[in-house]
Amino acid sequence: MTGSANWPAMFEGDATIAQLLAPKQLAIGTMAAARADGAPRASGIYAWYFDRIPAGIDASSCHRAGDWTLLYCGISPKKPPVNGRPPSRSHVHQRLRTHFGGNAAGSTLRLTLGCLLEAETGTILRRVGTTGRLTFTNPGEQLLDAWLHMHARVAWATHPAPWEPEERLLVSGLPLPLNIEGNPCAAFTGPLSALRSAAKRRAKALPLIGDSGGPRRAVGVQR
């Protein structure tokens, strides 16, 4: 069942996007991050589904797979730069491990979710460590780990140039309220950008704290 549109039918014939919109299974963080049978160590695109919608997010028209609502898509690696710099060597497995068990400095999705969930989970953005990186501190990142472990699931598809299906999804009108970069829907991107900017301004005005935000063992994730 979907929101206001039958998105799988609209992408009929696109095998890559079909794996995201009609997934055979949705993976929990432990499954995605598993060393042996986890997400692929290859380039690809991934979709994030949630059974709990963060406060302030309108998901009424979003695509659904059962009880899970699609709010975000991402890729790994990014599109190669055109300035001659070497392309990223990242892959889906590495990126999902960062999203599920990294910190806000390395994951824009974690940054967005932590800001949205501040009132619910107590995740407050701070400057940490010797360099002043912006994270939710080690305890705060663990709170976000636990929330993701409970309420987030992912689907993925390999693709040699994942920015191509990502662009097709973003320009299609499919609601992806947690995507900011490349999302043409200002009703989604405007409030999120403002929320994150306010959190960063507040963090920069607060004292630097010594907690680095990691490394740590994410809740439920076996290294």
Layout: helices, strands, pairs:
Layout: H1 7-10, H2 15-21, H3 29-33, E1 44-50, E2 64-65, E3 68-76, H4 92-101, H5 108-116, H6 118-121, E4 126-128, E5 133-135, H7 137-151, E6 152-158, H8 163-171, H9 186-205
Antiparallel strand pairs: 1-3, 1-6, 2-3, 4-5
Helix pairs in contact: 5-9
Can you characterise this structure?
With 223 residues, the chain is α+β, with helices and mostly antiparallel strands. The protein has one domain. 37% of the residues lie in helices and 14% in strands. It contains nine helices and six strands. The strands form two sheets. Strands 2-3-1-6 form a four-stranded antiparallel sheet. A two-stranded antiparallel ribbon has the order 4-5. The longest helix has 20 residues. The C terminus is likely disordered.
Please give the oligomerization state of what you see: single chain
Q: Please count the beta strands (DSSP E, at least 2 residues each).
A: 6
Main pleated-sheet profile: 4 strands, antiparallel
Helical content (DSSP H or I, runs of 4+): 25-40%
Termini separation comes to 35 Å
- The number of distinct helices, counting runs of at least 4 residues, comes to 9
Shape estimate: globular
Whole-number mean pLDDT: 91
Strand content: 5-15%
The tally of structural domains comes to 1
Order of helix and strand elements from N to C terminus: HHHEEEHHHEEHEHH
Secondary structure class reads alpha+beta
Which parts are unreliable, with pLDDT below 50 for 5 consecutive residues or more?
218-223
Widest beta sheet: strand line-up: 2-3-1-6
For the CA atoms, what is the radius of gyration?
A: 17 Å
